Structures are given as C-alpha cells and as structure tokens.
User: Which sequence fits this backbone?
C-alpha cells in the first residue's frame, strides 16, 4: 500500500511540474501612423464683455460682424447720473482739501489742535477716495477692449436697461485663428510641435497648410485622447471662426 501511494504522489508531482505555462499578455497595438481628424477654427482671443454698471444702453456703434479698432467704444451707457456724482465728489474733495490747507496754517499759529487737523485730513482723504471711485464708475459707462477685431454677437439693444454683470457683447480677435482638435494619445509617439500638415475646410472647399503649435498638458484617462492646436499658415483672409474641416496627419517617415 505504501508503495502504491508513493507512485501516485510521484505522478501528481509530475503533473504539477509539467503544467502548461500561462498565456502570454496581449501585445500593445502600435500607434496609428495616419490620422483623419475633424477640427474647428477658433480665435486665439475672444471674450464676452459684461456690464460693470447698471445703466441704460445709449449707443451701440458697431453691428454684428463689424470690425473695430483697439480702444474704440463698443457700448456706450447713459452717463448723466454717474457724471453728476463725479462732479459732486470732485467739489467735495476740493472743498475738503481747502479746509485742510486752512487748518494747517491755523495749526502753525497754534489756533487749532493736532487732533482737529488730523480729523480734517482724514475727511479730505475720504473725499478724495470718493472722487476717484466716481471717476472709475463714470469710465465704466464706455465699454472697449484693448485689441482690434469683430463683433461676434450683440446681447443687448439700444435703450435697454442692463444690470451690473449682464453680458453685453461678444468680441473676436480674428487676426489669428487656430485649429483645435482631439486625437488619440497613442499618436504622441510621433506628433511634434512644428509638424506640418494640411487641412480641408468644409465651408471654403479648399485645403490649407497648417503647423502644429501646441500639445495639451494632459491625456484624458477615460477616452485616451489629448487636445492639440495648430495655426493656419496661409489664406486666413477668407476663414472665419467656427468653420470646421478635416485634418490629414501622417507620421514622419524615418530617415
């Protein structure tokens, strides 16, 4: 019996020794070397400007689609109330400053105490701050931006009263447009900033030369994609923000 058990144990041991090796892990698929990607044209600079004061819209000098220069008034508010407040604050500030001057002369002669002088100086400083505040509020009655561009959309109309924080106008700097698109993160194996490619824009039916200018800072872990941006190198005059097309990206050939 002991001999039979020994034989069985040896057989089982043999089975354990000669068990099949585990299946190898599947190989990682190679990165694609050619991509057809949808992309859209976006302005490098754009903004939706909101009101910083509550007032009635007096004038909208530019219609939608019109071009404007840097610093030109895009929205003008009725400013009579703010102008009157600024005038009142200026008069009060000037009066307070004259009182301080008089108190200083009297203090030199010992006719007023130091505490009275300090109080007068504090009132003058407060009046000056009020004057500066009303000047700032008055300046907000004219809305402009520090770049040239086009009016994308008007969110208000003339004679409409708006509240502080209400969107007024969308402005677009169309002097430089860039392509925005998303591709698989596996393509990072060969995508490089400065890489040249072509894009065919649907609205014009033409192809344009483009250059990769920016690669996103992070990969989306769920979709395994990354955002990229590129500049159009020619023919921008006929292109508009919001147009879209197809990018033809190919991996550079090995030398």
Assistant:
């Amino acid at each position: 019996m002991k001999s039979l058990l020994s034989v069985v144990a040896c057989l089982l041991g043999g089975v354990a020794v000669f068990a099949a090796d585990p299946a190898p892990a599947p190989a990682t698929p190679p990165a694609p070397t050619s991509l057809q990607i949808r992309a859209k044209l976006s302005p490098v600079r754009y903004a939706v400007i909101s009101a910083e004061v509550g007032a009635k819209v007096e004038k909208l000098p530019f219609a939608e689609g019109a071009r404007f220069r840097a610093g030109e008034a895009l929205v003008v508010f009725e400013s009579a109330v703010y102008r009157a407040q600024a005038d009142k604050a200026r008069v009060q500030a000037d009066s307070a400053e004259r009182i301080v001057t008089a108190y200083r002369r009297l203090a030199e002669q010992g006719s007023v105490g130091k505490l009275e002088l300090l109080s007068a100086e504090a009132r003058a400083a407060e009046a000056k701050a009020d004057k500066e505040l009303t000047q700032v509020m008055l300046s907000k009655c004219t809305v402009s931006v520090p770049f040239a561009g086009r009016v994308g959309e008007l969110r208000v109309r003339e004679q409409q009263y708006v509240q502080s924080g209400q969107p007024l106008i969308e402005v677009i700097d169309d002097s430089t447009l860039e392509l925005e698109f998303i591709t698989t993160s596996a393509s990072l194996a060969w995508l490089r900033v400065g890489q040249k490619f072509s894009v065919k824009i649907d609205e014009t039916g033409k192809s344009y030369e483009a250059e990769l200018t920016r690669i996103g800072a992070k990969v989306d872990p769920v979709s395994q994609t990354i955002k990229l941006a590129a500049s159009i190198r020619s023919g921008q005059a006929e292109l508009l923000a919001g147009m879209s097309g197809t990018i033809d990206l190919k991996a550079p050939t090995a030398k």
